[in-house]
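Exercise: predict the fold of this chain.
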Amino acid sequence: MHTSNPQNIARLAAVSPRRWCLLLASVPLLLSACASAPVYDRQLAAAETAVENANTASTQENAATELRVATDKLASAQRAASNKQPALALQLAQQAELDAQVAVLSARSARALKSAQESQEAARILQQEMQRSSTR
């Protein structure tokens, strides 16, 4: 439609104000619907990344239960999303992400505890050797 034609300008001016308002009100809604993915999609992606990053040999060895909880919640979130349950999908995806972080932190804690125990054992052995040397 070429607006410089006087007939086209007259047609545009003849559109009722109510239609203009409706048209103008719908534009931002349509643009926002096209521009962004649903919140639960972004949260699902974040949860998937967190679970993938948490799935290491160390975490499998030292925090297997926590990792399994995160993996199970992620699978439940994905099912909820495919079943068109966005609120549940969002909630489960958030929980899966946090559970993955818990798994990583639990594995780190277990490694630190193991390292501390090994250091204590080495110190105990060294102390015994020193005592043995001083009694000779």
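Check your answer against the key: The CA atoms of residues 121 and 127 lie 10 Å apart.
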